[in-house]
Amino acid sequence: MSPVGSAGKLAGRLGNQIWLKREDAQPVHSFKLRGAYHRIAKLTPEQRAAGVVAASAGNHAQGVALAGQALDIRTTIVMPETTPSIKIDAVRAYGAEGVLVGDAYDDALAHANSLIAERGQSCIHRYDYLVAMAVQGTVAKAILDQHRAPIDTVYLPVGA
């Protein structure tokens, strides 16, 4: 579980208590691991045997790769050729097959969809899966579990 920590300087400047849920302390530095892991963990034995494919050039790619490694599932991540090498290296370090296609996410997604159809693998979409979205939302429950004092407001960034 990622920690909750005080944002001391910002809190001092604003004259208020400000706490941060440090999802950047997750192994892939993002909340994206939560949804990816849950989605893959819920696959049937047949789906697990076939493997998974995801299109992403960022944190979702690393989350799927790490989940695949942890669950011993063949994982392919399709990324645009413009993906930074640090992201490509991270995906491959988790044991995933990293495939580089096109200049943009849409190119990578089209290729991922063709691999899914060709290989009969499961798509691990970066956000278009209701349960994964709900699981990523468990960060709110974690905040409440870890920070027992009253909370006035919670702000969270979201992104695809």
Q: Compute the separation of the termini in Å.
A: 22 Å
Unreliable stretches covering 5 or more consecutive residues: none
Q: What is the helix tally?
A: 8
| Cα gyration radius (Å) | 17 Å
Q: What level of helicity do the residues show?
A: 40-55%
Strand order of the largest sheet: 5-4-3-6
Q: What is the number of E strands?
A: 6
Largest sheet data: 4 strands, parallel
Overall shape: elongated
The pLDDT mean sits at 88
**What structural class do you assign from the helix and strand content?**
alpha/beta
Strand content: 5-15%
The string of secondary-structure elements, in order, is EHEHHEHEHEHEHH
Describe the structure in your own words.
The strands form two sheets. The chain has a four-stranded parallel beta sheet with strand order 5-4-3-6, sandwiched between helices. The longest helix is centred in the last third of the chain and has 15 residues. It is elongated, with a radius of gyration of 17 Å. It starts with a strand and ends in a 14-residue tail after the last helix. It has eight helices and six strands. The protein is an alpha/beta fold.
